[in-house]
Amino acid sequence: SRLDHSLILIAAGEVLQNCVRYGYESNGESGQISITLFSFHYGIALEIEDDAPPSDPEFWISEKDASEGGLGLITVVNASSAVRYKALSTGNLARLIFNFPEYKIGERSSAWVGDIYIARQKPYALFDHMCEGMGDYLTDWHRKLFKDAITEIRAHIESNRMKLFYHNEWHIQDVVISMVHLLKNSPQLSERERLECLLAAAFHDHLHPGLAALGDLDEPIEIHSASMAKVFLENWSLKEMSLAEGSVTVIEQLILSTEPRKRDHLYERSRPADDPLYHQKVLLNDADILVSLVPALGLNLARSLKYEALMTDQKSSNLYETFSSRALIASECAKALISPFASH
Predict the structure, then answer these.
(1) Distances (CA, A) of 243 to 123, 226, 304
(2) β-pairing verdict for 91-99 and 82-88
(3) Cα within 13 Å of Cα(60), Cβ side
(4) What is the DSSP letter of 219?
(5) Is there a contact between 98 and 44 (Cβ–Cβ < 8 Å)?
(6) Which H or E run includes 130?
(7) Bridge-partner residues for 3, per DSSP?
């Protein structure tokens, strides 16, 4: 009752017509179409998936006039809060997001938050998100590296499951998803720099023991995470194709920059726009804290802190309030993503 059902039906109908017309009929084939509904704090999402031959969304822009169905994609955009098309390995996916009217959230922010929420309701897909982050640079070598890195990370998480209420595989996926959205607006980064950002995002809280255990550590947890990442990446390079010279050191530096005291120092300083390492550090730190600044998602942080730090509900909520009021983000893209939620 909080959404205009006619808009949902119109948008879904246009996507379904395209699945039938271009996915199947134009290829002389038949197949299946699945529709999945997702509910989340800010609205709902529909995912429509076919098993037709994969088609690059970049070539879906139609120049047909309205009488020939050329307004279909425009209609979908106008009826939805955010639309995302994706070619899969064995089909095509369309995700339509419809925000509740009380949340005036733009297309980019809707797509980002929708990705976070929907990822939590689907089988774990960190690998797919990391591959997406490479965009046109993705190669079979990247796929192999990502699969092996994720296997390593999840093995460590599983062996320490009881300690990781927040700094677990879901937090890693949240940060990688946020990194992917930030990378979309960072075209100046090279293939190597994008790869370094994604690997640093995946390893940045590797085996974080929770706040309650930090008192037993002589050094910031980021030092341990960086060291673990270095060991894995150096060993992987010995067995497989090597990373570019210096990349392991850059990834270490990126992870170390997420230590809270270094983060504050990072955001206080101004560096030239042509300093790629500084830009990478900003992106990683922004990705790490972005998801906790969305109020509905930040509640998850507050609840998890209760267990990681062995504190009461009230203390954890107070700590989150303090964090959210003090947290900074540096990149213009990150500010644009989070700004619609400031009033909610």
Answers:
(1) 29, 16, 35
(2) antiparallel
(3) 23
(4) S
(5) yes
(6) helix 126-134
(7) none
What is the pLDDT tens value at each position of the chain, 344 positions in all? Answer: 889 999 999 999 999 999 998 889 888 888 999 999 999 999 999 999 999 988 888 776 555 554 455 567 889 999 999 999 988 888 999 999 999 999 989 999 999 999 999 999 999 999 999 999 999 899 999 999 999 999 998 888 787 776 677 778 889 999 999 999 999 999 989 999 999 999 999 999 876 766 655 566 667 788 888 998 999 999 998 888 889 999 999 999 999 999 888 888 888 777 666 788 999 999 999 999 998 999 888 887 888 878 777 788 888 888 888 888 888 899 999 999 999 987 54
Query: Structure tokens of 173?
Result: 């996926």
Q: Which amino acid is at 89?
A: S
Whole-number Å distance between alpha carbons of 20 and 61? 17
Query: What pTM was computed for the model?
Result: 0.90
